Amino acid sequence: MRTMRHIACLIYPGVMSLDVTGPLQVFASANEERARLGLPSAYTLHLLAESTGPVVTSAGFALHAEHAFHATDPGIFDTLLVPGGQGEQAQFGNQPLLQWLRDAEPRVRRLGSVCSGALILAHAGLLDGHAATTHWADVEALRAFPRIQVQGERLHTYQPGAPHLFTSAGVTAGIDLALALLEDDLGRTLALAVARRLVMFLKRPGDQAQFSPHLSPEASRAPRLAALLEWIPAHLGDDLSLQALAERACMAPRTLYRVFTAELGTTPARYVEQVRLASARALLQGGQASVQSVARLCGYGHPESLRRSFQKTLGVSPQHYAERFG
């Protein structure tokens, strides 16, 4: 049985440093946790670039690549990660890199992207026919590839047992992805230990939304809904059915539904659910109210409805969430 897994991450000028160091730190911390248990390391980490030596990131400091990708046999790697960053566009036409990625795809057990690194995989043609996500700011660019099944709201698309190609959203979602890979490799107990060490929440499901609707950048691009979106968070205990929202927006229900899906990419009901959940999380984190009060204030009515929403979206109960983050 294979005991040492080699994890490689591609780097290039202008790469986002956290897209690289965040996921790799998860695997490094797994080695540290195993050492505390008297167990050998499970991972060896590698950085690949056009050539060996320092590569300047978008943050201005350099990472050191120990391998040139074109001189490296991808078959030695268990997992290959492609990060995003300001320099990614220069890689879209880097034919030697794109061809190397195509050659590597059938030879590595897992190939995935972090943040807008999905666009590099897309230009290589590797995401055709697959579900994929990326940073919210790059979702429309990913939609330009018609054969990719874009799922813009997800944190990541990795699922154990599914096709070995996967993607993740921006920055910290890469850490969520790495925790999911670690859990699949070595079990939930070790993944939880690493999450605790990194002060992370284990585990945010891959289909969780990338950001709170309160801060949604899409809202600024929906002028017809601006007043309604500002009104909703202050009236979560009210009737927020489609009919009620349509009356508030002075639109027909069918028109409001169409505007929501066109401008925000989601339905009115799902948007309201996201806002209610975000508000409930904020109240529980601040220790400002009991679970029963939070359910009432956020429009869930009964605590059981709140519990179902938390379990479905976060994988934990409101009580557990409050204990952990309150």
TrEMBL record:
Superkingdom field: Bacteria
Pfam families the record matches: DJ-1_PfpI, HTH_18
HTH araC/xylS-type domain ranges (all copies): 226-324
Keyword Repressor: no
Alphabetized InterPro entries for the sequence: Class_I_gatase-like (IPR029062), DJ-1/PfpI (IPR002818), Homeodomain-like_sf (IPR009057), HTH_AraC (IPR018060), HTH_AraC-typ_CS (IPR018062), INH-QAR (IPR052158)
UniProt keyword terms in alphabetical order: DNA-binding, Transcription, Transcription regulation
GO molecular function: DNA-binding transcription factor activity; sequence-specific DNA binding
An example Gene Ontology biological process: positive regulation of metabolic process
PANTHER family noted in UniProt: ARAC-FAMILY TRANSCRIPTIONAL REGULATOR, HTH-TYPE TRANSCRIPTIONAL REGULATOR RV1931C
Name of the protein described by the UniProt record: Helix-turn-helix domain-containing protein
Annotated source species: Pseudomonas eucalypticola
Lineage of origin: Bacteria, Pseudomonadati, Pseudomonadota, Gammaproteobacteria, Pseudomonadales
